[in-house]
Design a protein that fits this description.
331 residues; alpha+beta; Helix Hairpins; disordered N terminus
């Protein structure tokens, strides 16, 4: 009969203690040290619903800001028009006052002193006095009228400045709320992307090879990437995938697509280049989940195994160097 060794008898009681200690240590480990479970489709949909509700509120705020901005634009335009009209009246009255002052200074208008020191016929003197009073009253009226014109112009200036300030404020608010809504929409897009899983994913993270299918002769995995990019970005110059030329790449295998940013080999605009960057960055962000193997763009290649961009040799042209399109290959 086999005899249990003394060593075994001494160590066996400690097995339970070790197990308990291990469980306690695992429970005490910080949350970051344990792998977080991947969210289920149900959880993702619940989070998506919350994000969409918040998005609706942000879009409503943005809409209200647009209305306020439009009202501010109209008020500012009206204030500018009023100021222009007030300035014209002010300039006209200023010219008249200057002409009156010059006339009095140079004596081209009847001198009030001369009228009073002329012939002393009583009736004539009374008539001259009445005329002087009339001229004085006329001048007073002109001065009072000019004062009102001046005050109206100042009021129009103040109103125009206030309306311009309101317009600047609404522009700032509109831009701020627009950015908030855009960020929220981007979060929704990311959450929607997570609802899709690349077909053929093994438990160990590798991908089962697939055959091309459908009218465009690409694999289901490539078709999913193509669909998501089409839904998320504008690709106005077309998407080229399968081609029969055996060049050592994935195009003949139905595992690659080119997302064109321009036509005929022309260098894309700055805006289109930015869109190409966005497509490439999206592909990198979702590479492991969607089975994307590498991305080529602007004479650089990014491979999932290295996780970094590497410069490629010059192939001699805009298209050959992938400046007019990001190229995406899947496993």
């Amino acid at each position: 009969m086999a005899v249990t060794s003394p060593t075994f008898r001494l160590r066996a009681p400690w097995r339970g203690v070790v197990a308990v200690l291990a469980a306690a240590l695992l429970a005490a480990a910080p949350a970051g040290a344990r792998a977080q479970p991947k969210p289920t489709v149900k959880q993702l949909k619940k989070e998506l619903a919350t994000l969409q509700k918040e998005s609706d509120k942000l879009i409503t705020d943005y809409y209200n800001s647009r209305i306020a901005h439009q009202k501010a634009e109209k008020a500012e335009k009206s204030a500018r028009e009023k100021l222009t009209a007030a300035q014209e009246i002010y300039d006209e009255n200023s010219t008249e006052l200057r002409a009156m002052a010059i006339a009095q200074y140079t004596g081209t208008e009847p001198s009030q002193v001369a009228m009073l020191t002329g012939p002393q016929d009583p009736s004539a003197l009374l008539g001259r006095m009445a005329l002087v009073q009339h001229l004085v009253a006329l001048q007073d009226a002109r001065l009072r009228g000019f004062a009102k014109v001046r005050d109206d112009r100042q009021q129009a200036q103040d109103e125009a400045a206030a309306r311009a300030g309101d317009l600047d404020r609404t522009v700032g608010e509109l831009e701020s709320r627009k950015k908030k809504a855009e960020r929220q929409i981007e979060r929704i897009r990311d959450k929607i992307d997570q609802l899709y899983k690349a077909p053929g994913l093994r438990p160990d993270g590798t991908f089962v090879p697939q055959l091309p299918q459908g009218a465009d002769h690409i694999t289901p995995r490539m078709a999913l990437v193509k669909q998501l990019i089409q839904e998320r970005f504008e690709v106005p110059y077309g998407i080229g995938c399968y081609r029969a030329i055996q060049d050592g790449g994935e195009h003949p295998l139905g595992r690659a697509c080119d997302f064109m940013l321009s036509r005929g080999g022309a260098m894309p605009t700055a805006e289109e280049l930015k869109r190409g960057d966005e497509i490439a960055n999206w592909a990198i962000k979702n590479a492991k989940r969607l089975g994307i193997m590498y991305v080529i763009y602007r004479q650089r290649i990014w491979h999932v195994s290295s996780g970094a961009w590497r410069t490629m040799s010059d192939r001699g042209g805009t298209t050959a160097n992938h400046y007019d399109h990001p190229h995406i290959s899947v496993y």
